[in-house]
Design brief:
alpha+beta, 6-stranded antiparallel β-sheet, 3-stranded mixed β-sheet, 11 strands, 36% helix, 19% strand, globular, nucleus, CENP-NAC/CAD_complex, centromere
Length: 353
Amino acid sequence: MRRDPAGNVGRAKEMDETVAEFFRRTILKIPITEMMAVLKAWDFLSENHLQTVNFRQRKESLVQDLVLLCEEKRASLNDAALLDIIYTQFHRHQKVWDVFQMSRRPGEDIDLFDMEQFKSSFKKILQRALKNVTVSFRDTEENAVWIRIAWGTQYRKPNQYKPVYVVYYSQTPYAFVASSLLKSNLPLLGQALTVASKHHQIVKMDLRSRYLDSLKAIVFKQYNQTFETHNSTTPLQERSLGLDINMDSRIIHENRVEKERIQRVTQEIFGDYPQPRLEFAQYKLETKFKSDLNGGILAEREEPLRCLVKFSSPHLLEALKSLAPAGIADAPLSPLLTCIPNKGMNYFKIRDK
């Protein structure tokens, strides 16, 4: 119950049906095991509110109770968008993230960065260009901001169920974008990012993964850190080489020398630390047909021959790192496979020089 300005007592204004449905669908996709953690991170409903909710009831009933609480607190569309951002942060690996790199003009001075000014500028650029668009922000650790954009058109309201997510780290030239982004909106997003962050140009890198933290580690060159959980203190000569003690001593010595060489080369290339997590690397080859023989159908072909090779694994770089020690490949591996973290690429185009 609430009292209006005239002093009359009445029911709280009901939430807009589209906002209520947005809340319902957002809460419905949160797993029961994560529900309390997500709601506490959202920090919209108080502890007292949450204590009134029976989290052991059927999920449909739980969702209904939570939506009613949001309605009582007069939650807005932006509050629902923030809840969706937090859910996405919990499940960031369900998105495919692209990396965009920005640059300044040569010799251009670097101004002091203000996050609030960045947000205001970013939002104004989108709203001036497009009537129906909603933009929401959530600050996180490491000077990062998560941005959620729901696109509409001049005649349609924003589609809250197909948003774009952008993660931008202040004072860096990198932005990470996960979306079903329409190509028509990509230039506008790029303009908003470059102007708001005071850069001049933006390009999409040939780097993509579901693992946002690994992409961040690659572009910020943080992948060579040694994690506490990774034991790399055992000297090479003390590591088990898996040799048969009944084997001829000369063969044992030759195998040991070769295995030590492989271990050394592998460590020099990949380091002795966990690799960033990527699921694939893709190589497109374009080459003209070459032959010492005259004539033939292929010799007369003007178009280049094209070939696509894709390496896939739940953890591609760790899989590549294990190939030579396992005896599956020679050491060292091809630079086309080992250069992925240093070049910040997992899409390659190989053409004739």
